[in-house]
User: What shape does this take?
Amino acid sequence: MIRVKNLSITLGSFVMKDINLEVNTGEYFILIGPTGCGKTVLIETLVGIRKPDSGEIWINNQNVTYQFPEDRNVGYLPQDFALFPNMTVEANIAFGLKARRREKKYIRTVINRLAESLSISHLLLRYTQGLSGGEKQRVALARALATEPGVIFLDEPLSSVDENSREILCNELKEIHSRFKTTFIHVSHSFEEVSEMADRIAVINGGAVEQVDTVENIMYHPVNRFVAQFTRTKNIFEGTISGNEILINENIRLKTIYKTTGNVLITIRQEVIKILEELKEEYDNVFRGKIVKLTKRNNIVSIVIDIGIPITLYTMDYELVERIKSKSIVYIMIPRESINVINI
Amino acid sequence: MSGSRWFVYVLYAITILFIVSVCWLFLSNIGYTDTQSVLELFSRPWFWKSVKLSLLTSCVTTIIAIVVGIPASYALSRFNIPGKTIIDVLFASVIVLPASTIGLCLMVAFQYEPILKIQQALGIRIVHSMPSIIIAQLVLALAFGIKAWRAAFDDVNPRYEHVARSLGSSRMRTFWKVTLPSAKVGILAGIVLAWTRAMAEFGAVLLFSSTFRNRHETQFSHISKFLGIDRADILPVGMWMEIEGGNIEQGIAIGFVLVIITLLSVYALNKISGKGLQTNKI
Assistant: This one.
């Protein structure tokens, strides 16, 4: 388990304050946030490249806060993988084992096992220049895995590859993680890129952790406007709640499962809103509106409907889209359990 | 004719003019010497002593520069040393200052306290002694070497070192196994540059060490005599002495020897750079 307690880091004028995180053994944990939010600074501090101002870092029941990187037993994959250019692939993988003065026979066994497992046996005698993005990633992972680290830190490993390769590399990472069962802490700036890989996610903004939760909870129950916007929630409104009814404006009243009072921020995921072809009495939160925009991207149709406020919904039901396209007025239903309410 | 074509022609013309000028600079001097003067120079014992002294001092200087300069360059490249900007300015100043000014500074520094006291305590005198040649060469060689070595270390991605250390490699092992090999082209270029600068040094050596050829035999140590470098000057000083003494032909002949040594060094430098890049492409 990796535990970060009240960690504070200063880098020039940039400050990260009171960072608290717990990552379970074997978990695929993702640190996510916009560029400049401090996620790379945090990961470099966890690796041991930077020193924190205060706080503690525990890796597998050992306080490593002031240990050098070489004493932490961690793996680190920076953005460009940083494969040593003066060594062959084989020497790259053996590097950590040689630093630990392991026997030659043992080193050979580990290299062969990892090379076979990661399908890089044919690359062992090559230098690292000229390897493809995927090959580089697998060599870097083999190098990190060779020393059996307690955790592997990956700093935006998918940022320098094209969109087609990204999906393949994502799948490879997830597959390697599940095969080796090592704890992975992966830094990314794109929610879409990593949402399918993560067991849990920490959303970071402006040097602070905004929310730590499962992908589903981060998407459907963001704790503030930033997390909702960062996870691409399209429907974010302010309103007033009384009992279980939210008043957004004079005409828009939404029923929710939450009971509270006061001003609230509500978030509704675009995937949960339904277009109705027939009205039933048991439905609530049904609104009549006008289609104002309809766009298709990556097999998903995005429809903006004006019900007094603009509501965006996503659908993959192309037949339904064809049927409603010509209609100027449609009905939509917002399930009350999918309305996320945040007190403000 | 288009403007682009004219622009290219002008560039070619300037380049050719420059190449011809440099060649003429060297070749024009041939007329002022002859085979007899060169052979006469080669027959003089002091000349070969000068060659030996120049090679010996420049090699020792380069070794000291490597031992001191490479670690210093690495520290300057990687650590937040206080006053880094001032250090940079100082090194740059040494490069651009007239070498004779450096020689003068060295002479003053070594003739007054506290360095004078240290010399007295050790029973030695540096100014106008043979070891002073190495000190004078070293100042210049270090300034040039550190400039090149620091640039070489700056070019090495620090992430290599971060990854190496995360894999359990100590800072020192990381330096030897990752940083230094990655910077080898720049490091070798810096070594050649430092050696060439030491070999060609004149002004600082003349002021700080003076000349040796006309000194009495008793003024030289047993080591100098054993090494066969007594009563000899480094080649640039030897050349100057010949010209001062009116032996223009022999002065020019020494100049040619220096030109050949320099050309070979620069050729080696280019070869090293080229070879290094090819190795990385494997």
Remarks:
- Chain B has two domains: 1-32, 35-280.
- Residues 45-78 of chain B form the longest helix (34 residues).
- Chain B has a mean pLDDT of 87.
